[in-house]
Write a structure and sequence with these properties.
The chain is 62% helix and 0% strand. It has helices spanning 3-7, 19-38, 40-62. It is mostly helical. The chain has a domain at 39-65.
């Protein structure tokens, strides 16, 4: 074996490309499928609450006129 071959080893593949990572992702996909199908009423019942939690921060950001601009009456002559 040459010296240059031993110094330049290839990095290990990302974890999701390994057999263990693929099995773990498959397990998570199956678990998510059964969790959603068995608890569909609970998931759909929580959907309005999740939408409300998403809309509140967005309304706060956009309803304040872009933020950072504080208009006070004392600046005008």
């Amino acid at each position: 074996m040459r010296e240059s071959e031993s110094n330049h080893s290839t990095p290990p593949p990302p974890w999701w490309k390994t057999r263990t990572g693929a099995a773990f992702i498959g397990f998570l996909a199956i678990a998510a499928f059964f969790l959603i199908t068995e608890h569909q009423a609970h998931v759909l019942g929580a959907l309005p609450l999740l939408l409300l939690l998403l809309v509140c921060p967005l309304m706060h950001l956009f309803m304040h006129g872009g933020g950072g601009h504080h208009h006070s009456g004392g600046d005008k002559p």
